[in-house]
Every structure is written in C-alpha cells, then in structure tokens.
Write the structure tokens for this entry.
Amino acid sequence: MNVLVINAGSSSLKYQLVHVENHAVIAKGICERVGSANAFHKHGIDENEVVIDAQMADHDAAMALVLDSLINSDDAPIKSLDEIDAIGHRIVQGGKYFDKSVLIDDDVIEKIDELAELAPLHNKAALMGIRACQKHMPNIPMVAVFDTSFFQTLPPKAYMYPLPYEYYEKYAIRKYGAHGTSHRYISERAAVVLDEPLEDLKLITCHLGNGCSMSAIDHGVAVDTSMGLTPLDGLMMGTRCGAIDPAIVPFLMEHENLTTSEVNDVMNKKSGLLGISGVSNDLRSVRDASEGGNERAQLAYDMYSNSVKKYIGAYIAVMGGVDAIVLTAGVGENCEKMRRMIFAGLQPLGIILDEEKNRQRGFEREISADNSAVKIIIIPTNEEYMIALDTFRIVEESEIDRDI
Ligand code: ADP
C-alpha cells in the first residue's frame, strides 16, 4: 500500500510517499514559507533533491504542487494519483478525544477544530492539509495520527496540574504531552533490538532534537512524559525554556512590560540553548563555541545535559527501575559529547556508557557497557513510517469491516 504522509505546519507542508510493506520512502519533500512571496518547494530523496521557487498562496496550492511533482517530475514515483491508496495526517493535539489514530470523517474534523484552542497554530494547519487533500483526492481514505494519543494512558496523578480543579473542568487544562508518535516508535523498536516483549520492559525514551521530550514507558504503557499542556514544558530545548518557576512569568511581564504574546515569544523562541549561550539554538554551534572557550555556551551545554539527567532520575523513581534508556532525534542520535555528559556519574544507578560504542556511528544500536545493568540504545526516529503504518492498518481494517 502506498501511503502519502502529510505533516502540515502553519507555513509548511511536509510529505512522504511510503510503500508500507516494503518499508520504503518512494518520494518526499517540503513546501516552505507557504503563503509568502519567497515560498519554495524541495522535492526528492537525498542527492536527487531539487529546490524550486514556487508561488503557493495557501496549503491548497501547495498540495496541488506536491501532487503534480509526485506524478509529473522527472523521477516521478507514480503515474497517477490512483496509485496513492491512503493518506496519513500528523495532528499535534488530539486532546481527550483520541487515544489512538482514527479514520477521518466529519466528526473527527470537527473535534480537531474544537481542539485548536489547545494548539492553535498546529491543529488549524493540519485542518488546512486535510481540506486540501479532500479537494484534490476526494475518494482516498485519510487517517489522523495524533502526537498526544500515546500519552492518553497517563494516570491522573501524572497528567493533572495542582491548580484549582475548576480550570481542568472549564478549559481541559492538563498534561497532554507531545512527540508521542516518536516515543511510541522508538519504544517498539527498542523492544525489537533488546529482543524482549515491550510488555516486559521499563523504558525511558528521550527525544532530543530542537524540541526535547522524555517519557516513562512501563510495560508498554506511557505513565509520564515531560511535555505538558503544550510542548513548552519539561526539558530545556533549542529555543524553549522548558520547566521554569511559573512566578517568573508575571515578574517578567511586569518588569519588562511584556504582553502575553511577547512573554510567550521569550519562552518559546528566545530561551533554551539560544537564550543561555547567546550563540545558537543549534547544539553543534553551541558545542563549537564552548570548545572555543565561550563560558555561556559551556553553561548551556551543562544545563541541557543536567536537565535530561534529572528526568532520568525522576522516571526511574516513577517506574521503580528501568531496563533501558532509548535516545533519538538530532542530538540523541548524533551528539556523542552530550551523551557522555548525560550519563556521566550514573554508574551507581547501574547505567554505564561504553565510550567506544558511544563514538561509533550507525543505525539502531546499543551503546551501554557490557556490565551496565541498564541498556542504553540509540534508535533513529521515524515518525513518518509510524504514521504510514497506522494508516495502513486502519484502512485495511476498515476495508475488511466494509466487506463483512
Ligand atoms: P527537529 O526535528 O526537532 O527540528 P532534529 O531532530 O533535527 O530537530 O535535531 C536538531 C538538533 O540536533 C540541533 O540542535 C543539532 O545541532 C543537533 N545535531 C544534529 N546533528 C548533530 C551532530 N552530528 N552533533 C551534534 N548535534 C547534532
């Protein structure tokens, strides 16, 4: 089955055409700066990627370009849109309604719209993607895959905030988490690498990219996660502050005369690695600056690793132990120095990194020492494949139901 995976952002449209049974990406690309005069479209895999300046007033126009390139570009992977069997959409916020991926119908669309209050930019963008697909491919089944649904298993003691209960009732303010598709994928793959059933394992999964989140997965069930009502909570990130004393917010608003949207901007776009180092949100630049003697860059590095370390400790306590710690995304997969700093000093907890394995490059692999009670594993994340797989399974099931 060929599944078109769509990840629509407020000004972007990312896509992959995946042949599920072959586990193969047969086309991919991204339309960026959708709606602005300098929009462009990147299409193609690795060295075959081409960048085309293109006018696209909205997501509908971007979708038309994407579909055209899938069937008409030089290396077009398919001859007609009939070769697309299903579409999988990444949706950021599924709220309390969606604890798993679902076939999209009018009711699902209405609920995604209703939940936009909790993730205004993201859910509205996803809806634009869905509507564009409905227009250009009205007969192809579509599935919604939510970033939050993996965390619907969290117990109330983990997802509630100690605020007046009425705000939960009135506004549904609670922890929803994010990056769920990635945490689900890497936990499933980790079980394969460990050659043990997921249901027998206590895992701590760490998605460390520009956005960072960690979760505690106890016998296959997510029991806690670091992101909250929004993806701002938890770990220090590229430009996001993560958890801070909430009293800092009114303090800054008063003393810096900031509006709510300005203070939101400070916490989301000017903090984290960028805010502390003053150099960049990109860990490679921060690392280079710290190695060149920049003290603030070194501090940013130290704070980032300390932030991950604290969640490791917390989640070991939450689960009463851990069998494996799983790392993914740009930093988790690639930065040996950050990994060294995260695991330094954790030997008393039975967590021992193998320095040599940590230096080696590769795909899915263990990097813990042979005498480490807790395994440390790297799993390159693949959210698109997970979305394609969910879509494949749900569409197949719905077709069987229809035949019966
Ligand atoms: P996102 O998808 O959240 O934008 P990524 O998963 O691509 O982010 O991760 C981006 C982060 O990964 C950046 O901070 C970048 O510096 C870091 N990164 C990528 N490659 C390396 C590397 N080889 N060494 C250190 N950091 C790296």
